[in-house]
Design a protein that fits this description.
The complex is a heterodimer.
Chain A: E1 8-11, H1 15-27, E2 34-37, H2 40-47, E3 63-66, H3 75-84, E4 93-97, H4 102-110, E5 115-118, H5 123-140
Parallel strand pairs in A: 1-2, 1-3, 3-4, 4-5
Chain B: H1 2-77, H2 84-91, H3 95-105, H4 110-138, H5 142-155, H6 159-236, E1 241-245, E2 250-253, H7 255-260, H8 284-296, E3 300-308, E4 314-324, H9 328-332, E5 337-344, H10 346-405, H11 411-442, E6 447-450, H12 452-466, E7 472-476, E8 482-485, H13 486-503, E9 510-517, E10 523-530, H14 562-572, E11 577-582, E12 586-594, H15 595-608
Parallel strand pairs in B: 7-9
Antiparallel strand pairs in B: 1-2, 1-5, 3-4, 4-5, 6-8, 9-10, 10-12, 11-12
Helix pairs in contact in B: 1-2, 1-3, 1-4, 1-6, 3-4, 4-5, 4-6, 10-11, 11-14, 12-13, 13-14
Classes of the chains: A alpha/beta, B alpha+beta.
Chain lengths: 147, 609
């Protein structure tokens, strides 16, 4: 299986959360490069090779970790645009949010999210949750290769 | 229609027939009887006269015979017989016809006939004797005369026979007189009886006709009363009523009509409808519809109209009109009329307007409330998202700091880091609880029948499996099913049962009793009783408040949101919550739910059992 190593894209506006998540993923010793963007617009730019990411290499992320509440374009809107896009609609998306609100859960699943994880306050739980998500979607999960 | 009339006709005819029979019986029958008995009386009196005549004729016969005999005897004793001879010759021929007359008169009586027959023979003998004696006298043979006479008297003595005839006739006479008297008595009684019968008949006829007159008068009075009543009803109706002819001339109106619509000057009755009420009836389409009602019998149903009434108020009215079918005769004579009624719906219209205004207001208020709810929602959302992030960071970076310092950290630094993490965790759970409390207050109720027994059994199993080392004596009664939100009611039971488990944790033998009482009026009361720590009733008022705790956190952990949630849920389902307790004896927490909700599924479960 000759497989290109895809990135793990984290869209998270909170620097502290992002730092913790990146730390956790690094601690899991995954081969996938980690890309961090700070809002929804940047996330789409990355995936669609636009703006600052015009010149990045080919390939879709192995998994996208999306926060819901972000400036400019929130996570749910990003998810919606991904599912409407022929090239992006099969990329696994995990919502990583503080919100346990029913309405957020319902909308996420209606839009076809692959997993929804509520950020635990306990740091060790948070670490293990992010590590599990990374390992599962970036390593274990198989999905059809694009292009 | 025809059937009762026909029966009535038959009845009348029968009555007349019966009356005729009665008149006949009381007049004609006595007449016939009296006539008959008068005839009988006449006949009887004729018979009486007849008897007298028979006797008279017999006496005349006897007298004539005696005169003849005495003439012969005078001739015998007196010398010059000269002038007696013509007398004898004159009387002699009377005898035969007299006997014939007697025979004729007694033709009906055989006994008398035979007697008269023998009398005829005897008298003939005597006459022959007299004739012989006269012959002998002329021959001057006086001895022979005496002998002949003597012999004749001996041979043809008719006295006995005469007497017998008279006696028989007298007996007949008496008999006939008696019959006459009897017949007269009978006819007298008949007359009396007939008179009485006639009086009775007359009396009953008078009685019956009098009664009928009274009946008719009462019926007429009733009819008058009914007419008067309907007139009063029409007059006192608050709704204007008018009766029109087919060319819309007003024939009759009630008082309300007059109050609403000023009648035209001069002659109000017979004026056209448009002339009433200063132009209130000017609507040409209404007039056309009313003419249609008259001409084609089409009903006018709730025609809405705005009118200025006589008191100057602009009114909304509903006009109804229909052709009145009075009777076939009136119809045939072209006397069709239209009944016009007017209902004043001004007030109703005003209320409708007010209601729609209020509805608009209400809509605006609901909009406001929804707006507030939306704000509240976004506020909670912000709280849940934004308030928890820094906490996560505090806890996370405190942990990272601990790792970073590693073994170099002294005991005190480790303690500080611990306190920081604990505080963050605690605040996190407080926020979590607050969010849940707020969610319970605003999320929609999903109502349905909830089997409380199943809920409690499920939770009991859950708490037993988590506390195998403890000895808990559960006593669970029958819990009526209610209409409620199952998720919320699970939360209620979960809070109450977990409290009971928690506050009995220091007991050797914990007792938890769960039951319900539905005998109260209109509600079912559920309760959870334990023999745990209990609390002082002085603080009972704080028990159901948010984050209110009656025990030290070091003794029993918790944020103090549980019973606040219970109160909020039960309140939303229309019930109440309250508690009884004694320190160190245990507590009993009650909550009620409306029996309306409890009663319906209770019946369902009865059917199932």
């Amino acid at each position: 299986m000759n497989r290109e190593i895809n990135t793990i894209l984290i869209a998270e506006d909170s620097a502290a959360d992002a730092e913790m998540a990146i730390d956790a993923l690094r601690a899991a010793k995954l081969a996938n490069p980690i890309v961090h963007v700070e809002d929804g617009v940047e996330a789409l730019d990355y995936m669609l090779h636009r703006g600052a990411f015009k010149d990045r290499g080919k390939g879709n992320p192995a998994v996208v970790l999306l926060d819901i509440k972000m400036p400019r374009l929130d996570g749910l809107e990003v998810l919606k645009q991904m599912r409407d896009n022929e090239r992006l609609k099969r990329i696994p998306v995990v919502i990583l949010s503080s919100s346990r609100e029913e309405s957020d859960l319902i909308e996420s699943w209606n839009l076809g999210v692959n997993a929804y994880v509520v950020k635990p306050v306990d740091v060790s739980q948070f670490f293990s949750a992010v590590q599990i998500v990374g390992q599962f979607w970036a390593v274990l999960n198989e999905f059809p290769q694009q292009e | 229609m025809h059937w009762p009339n026909w029966t009535k006709g038959l009845e009348t005819r029968l009555r007349i027939l019966l009356l005729g029979v009665a008149v006949l019986a009381s007049v004609a029958l006595p007449y016939a009887i009296i006539r008959n008995s008068a005839n009988e009386t006449l006949a009887a009196s004729e018979w009486v006269v007849h008897s007298a005549e028979v006797r008279e004729a017999l006496l005349e016969l006897e007298f004539n015979m005696s005169e003849l005999e005495s003439l012969v005897l005078l001739d015998l004793v007196e010398v010059p017989p000269g002038e007696r001879r013509p007398r004898y010759e004159a009387i002699r021929p009377r005898i035969e016809p007299l006997i014939d007359r007697l025979a004729d008169m007694t033709r009906d009586n055989a006994d008398q006939q035979s007697r008269i027959g023998s009398l005829r023979v005897l008298l003939k003998g005597r006459l022959d004797t007299l004739d012989t004696a006269l012959q002998q006298l002329r021959q001057k043979n006086f001895d022979a005369v005496a002998r002949t006479l003597k012999q004749g008297a001996e041979t043809f003595g008719s006295r006995e026979t005469s007497s017998a005839i008279v006696a028989a006739e007298t007996a007949l006479f008496q008999q006939r007189q008696a019959r006459l008297a009897e017949s007269m008595l009978f006819s007298r009684w008949t007359v009396v009886a007939a008179l009485v019968a006639q009086l009775l008949l007359l009396g009953s006829v008078i009685f019956v006709s009098e009664r009928q007159v009274l009946h008719r008068q009462a019926a007429e009075a009733r009819a008058r009363l009914a007419v008067e009543r309907s007139r009063i009803i029409v007059q006192t109706m608050r709704e204007p009523i008018a009766v029109l002819d087919t060319s819309l001339r007003v024939l009759m109106t009630n008082e309300a009509f007059g109050e609403f619509y000023r009648p035209p000057e001069g002659e109000p009755s017979g004026a056209r409808l448009e002339e009433h009420g200063d132009g209130a009836w000017d609507s040409p389409s209404l007039m056309q519809r009313l003419l249609d009602v008259g001409a084609r019998g089409r009903e006018l149903w709730d025609f809405e109209l705005e009118q200025a009434s006589a008191d100057g108020i602009e009114r909304d009215v509903l006009v109804n009109a229909r052709r009145m079918e009075l009777s076939e005769d009136a119809e045939a004579a072209g006397e069709r009329t239209i009944l016009l009624t007017v209902s004043d719906i001004t007030a109703r219209k005003r209320y409708e307007k007010r209601i729609s205004e209020l509805n608009e207001d209400l809509g605006a208020k609901i909009e406001q409330v929804s707006e507030i709810n939306r704000e509240l929602e976004s506020f909670s959302y912000s709280v849940s998202h934004d308030l928890r992030a820094p906490l996560r960071h505090i806890a996370g970076f405190a942990a990272k700091l601990g790792e970073h310092i590693g073994d170099a950290a002294d005991e005190r630094s480790r303690h500080y880091l611990e306190v920081i993490s604990d505080a963050a965790r605690r605040m996190s759970s407080l926020i979590e609880d607050l969010l849940e409390y707020s969610r319970l207050g605003r999320s929609a109720l999903r109502l349905g029948p909830v089997d409380m027994n199943a809920l409690v059994a499920e939770l009991q199993a859950m708490y037993e499996s988590g506390n195998e080392e403890r000895s808990i004596n559960w006593r669970i009664g029958r819990l009526p099913t209610v209409i409620g939100d199952e998720g919320m009611l699970r939360r209620v039971w979960q809070n109450l049962i977990s409290n009971a488990v928690k506050y009995t944790s220091k007991r050797e033998r914990a007792e938890i009793e769960i039951g319900a009482d539905s005998s109260g009026s209109g509600e079912v009361v559920y309760y959870v009783r334990d023999n745990g720590t209990g609390f002082d009733m002085a603080y009972a008022g704080k028990l159901f408040g948010v984050f209110q705790r009656l025990h030290k956190a070091s003794e029993f952990p918790g944020t103090g949101i549980g019973l606040a949630n219970v109160r909020r849920i039960v309140g939303r389902l229309g019930g109440r919550t309250w508690a009884e307790a004694e320190p160190d004896k245990g507590a009993r927490i009650h909550f009620s739910l409306p029996a309306v909700a409890a009663a319906i599924p209770d019946k369902v479960s009865h059917h199932e059992s």
